[in-house]
From TrEMBL:
One of its GO terms (cellular component) is mitochondrial large ribosomal subunit. Belongs to the universal ribosomal protein uL15 family. This is ABC transporter substrate-binding protein. GO terms for molecular function: structural constituent of ribosome. The lineage of its organism: Eukaryota, Metazoa, Ecdysozoa, Nematoda, Chromadorea. One of its GO terms (biological process) is translation. Coiled coil: none annotated. InterPro entries: Ribosomal_uL15_bac-type (IPR005749).
Length: 162
């Protein structure tokens, strides 16, 4: 609802979006990605200040459970696990179907690339396992190899709760 009047140029990450939402965002000159959040990651993202005040390390975002992996690897859904080249092809195809021009200036594409989180990140620019001190206004990243491996393992952790 409201897609026909949506005009905000946004770079947004959501958990789910239909084709109308994707088209409205891209038609306005924006970018949309769908990304999975497991329960701990969602709790941290919903109220980051409370999460930080409690002294909790930032959790690694887990990959989706098997039942959802196809959604988040599908370029047509703008899934965060889909290859960028496939997303670009899908963006072009959608713009042709809906008869609008999809052109992203190089500077804009570079800015969006810089604002893209890694698959295991909850917050842009903050590594999993980091502690955030609001009082000190500092981020403390894990340095011990065991902590680094725990929060950013070689193989991504899957969320098997669902």
């Amino acid at each position: 609802q409201g897609a026909e009047v949506f005009a905000a140029k946004v770079n947004i990450e959501v958990q789910w979006a239909n084709q109308m939402t994707i088209a409205a965002t891209e038609l306005a000159g924006g970018r949309i990605r769908t990304a999975y959040y497991d329960l701990d990651s969602l709790r941290a993202a919903v109220d980051p200040q409370a999460w930080f005040r409690n002294g909790n390390p930032i959790p690694p975002r887990k990959i989706p459970p098997h039942s959802l992996i196809s959604y988040y690897t599908d370029a047509n859904n703008r899934g965060y696990l889909a290859p960028d080249s496939e997303i670009a092809t899908s963006e072009q195809r959608l713009s042709e179907i809906l008869e609008y021009t999809r052109s992203v200036p190089v500077e804009q594409a570079e800015a969006w690339e810089a604002q893209t989180k890694q698959a295991n990140q909850v917050f842009l620019g903050v590594k999993p396992g980091s502690l955030v001190s609001l009082a000190d206004r500092k981020v403390f990243e894990p340095t011990h190899p065991a902590l680094i491996e725990h929060y950013s393992p070689e193989e991504a952790l899957a969320d098997h709760l669902r």
